[in-house]
Amino acid sequence: MSLLARLKIITKILAVIMLLAAVAAGTSWLGIHAMSAMNDDAETMASAAKRALEAARANTSLITLNSAEFQVALDPRPENRSAVRKLVDEQTKLLNERVEDFGKTRDD
User: Fold this and answer.
1) What predicted TM-score, i.e. pTM, was given to this entire model?
2) Is 65 exposed, middle or buried (0-12, 13-18, 19+ CB in 10 A)?
């Protein structure tokens, strides 16, 4: 007589239910683990996006400083020079702040 023929039907049903529960638990654990890894990757991606945005803003500050240099070269009047000087001071301050922000972020 085979092994399954000697077992009661309730035992067979419970064995199938236990097997399905183990498969469901394994699938749940795998899903939770994958979501955790995806969350870590999303945080890394958000950090990289923030750094890229700060880099773009720093680039804009550099372009503005370059433009100010040409404005003074084209029109060296004292009024224009004082207006451009204010702009240069502001953009230099912003550029330094953004460069400091780069130093604070992690570099993977």
Assistant:
1) 0.63
2) middle
